[in-house]
Amino acid sequence: MVTSLSITHSSKHFPLMFTWKIVSDPIYNYVTFNKEVEEPIVNSILLQRLRYILQLQTAHLVYPGAMHSRFQHSLGVMHLSGVVAQDYTDKIIALYGEEALEGFPARSLVEAARLAGLLHDVGHAAFGHAFEEMVVWKNKKIPPELNNHEKIGVKLVEQLLEDELLKLEKNHDLPHLTEILLELLRENEPSAKILNVYRWIIKDSLYPTDIIDFLRRDSYYTGASEYGYIHHERLYLNTYPLRMKDNYILVLDRTAWGEFREYMVAKAGMYEHVYYHSVNRAFDRVLNEIISRMDSKYNLSDRVLMISTGNPYPYLELTDVFMYKLMMEHALYANDEIGRLCRTIMIDRKPPIRRVGREYILYASKGLTHLKELLKIMFSQQYRERVQKSIYEEVVSAVRERGVDYEDIWIDVLDISPVSKSVLIPSGSSKKPNLKLFLGKKSGREITLDRKVDLLEEGLPLMIIFRAYIARDKYSVELEPVVSKALESSMESVLGLTRREYDEALKNLFQHIDSVEHKSMTM
């Protein structure tokens, strides 16, 4: 195993600058934060409110243990980001000298990476991504600078923490700390090339600390540990920032290629079986409707808009605790539609729809035809909606004679990608995803770039899941094979994907096998 480098001018001296407090953590055993700089941020309203926002919105209705908060996740990302930042800093100085840090002190870079991990989720409101989808993205009044939780988080940091951060960096000899932190959190790439390396630690890379922590943490609390075990230490210890001209790339030592592939599979498995669990998706649909109706009733969008006027506090009230209080009141006392929906989640725990028939999964690994259709559905919203509508109509046609109508059916289409959407989906002038993993070999002070792995060609576990749901009061077990057949038939007619090529290939294979010698094998 390649280990991190030991050098004289090392960021390993960073911990000696501070007094550390220890927090027990089920994932890393212990997480630490320093009293001088990080404790004031941890104790701020921006972090403390995350105690009252669940990491997995409605997953606790399926997995009772999934009651962990975004606060726990944020501490974990801070811890992991600090470990990786110290390691990368030591490697950069050892390979290229301290001047490669472009004038930023090593201690400031490491602390900024830790704080970026701590603060990366502070822009979330109640129910996390569900609120973002139903309020932030759907309201045309929301300005571009507030149109996702990351941009909201940057605004909140600027309004509520920037002055405090500037004082802390001055009092504790951490030059440029605030500048570096904001560069790591903002949407645009940092102007200083070296800062891209530290930005990739938290986001916009193939295995950022944010994703590593939530996979390990979510799998632990849901009880689905078989999907979330990742050898992240081996991944990071074998990753090297390689300077190429005026820019950097991250190179993974080829000895860790197996761990990278395991990570890809683990992430795809968590999305397929946990995040996109069919019952969880049914609850998410109810929650989305509740949020949409409560936005109209309680003007939730206005709380987002108030951030741009310099008043973030109404937005900060929007935690799961705040919303669940409203939902319980409606569930107990209201006879309107919101009350019915709230009772579905708060009391009955029976979503009004349930999955029917088998799911159809479009795998990129099945060949170029499948990959082409998969990418079209992922990248073209218009094509996606056309496919979804065609499947919907065929399924409805198959069940209408059994008393099921259009309003009783829902077709769910889910993307699963083991790389971040910010990496997968092209932006700017790019015409295709740049899914490259750089593999190399380190020997002494030299890093040799071995090859660029095209992850699509290598078999990246991309997939799209198609599921049919039916109104619970219209469900009968006899509909299962009917819907399964209709779903498969619609996939063949809409996408032109059949088993014919596969069946013919197997037939030809066995026609050319004259004999098979059977040997006993010990596996």
Give a brief description.
With 523 residues, the protein is α+β, with helices and mostly antiparallel strands. It has helices spanning 38-42, 45-48, 70-96, 106-119, 129-136, 149-160, 162-171, 177-185, 193-202, 209-222, 225-228, 232-237, 257-275, 278-298, 300-305, 313-316, 320-333, 337-348, 368-379, 381-399, 421-424, 455-458, 479-495, 500-511; strands spanning 20-25, 29-34, 239-244, 247-253, 353-363, 409-416, 436-443, 446-454, 463-471.
Question: Could you describe the 3D structure shown?
Answer:
This is Metal dependent phosphohydrolase. One of its GO terms (biological process) is dGTP catabolic process. Pfam families: HD (PF01966). Helices cover about 50% and strands about 15% of the residues. With about 525 residues, the protein is of the alpha+beta class. The longest helix is centred in the first third of the chain and has 27 residues, at about 70-95. The model is unreliable at about 1-10 and about 520-523 (pLDDT under 50).
What is the strand and helix layout of this fold?
Blueprint: E1 20-25, E2 29-34, H1 38-42, H2 45-48, H3 70-96, H4 106-119, H5 129-136, H6 149-160, H7 162-171, H8 177-185, H9 193-202, H10 209-222, H11 225-228, H12 232-237, E3 239-244, E4 247-253, H13 257-275, H14 278-298, H15 300-305, H16 313-316, H17 320-333, H18 337-348, E5 353-363, H19 368-379, H20 381-399, E6 409-416, H21 421-424, E7 436-443, E8 446-454, H22 455-458, E9 463-471, H23 479-495, H24 500-511
Parallel strand pairs: 4-7
Antiparallel strand pairs: 1-2, 3-4, 5-9, 6-9, 7-8
Helix pairs in contact: 3-4, 3-9, 3-10, 4-8, 4-9, 5-14, 8-9, 14-18, 17-18, 19-20, 20-23
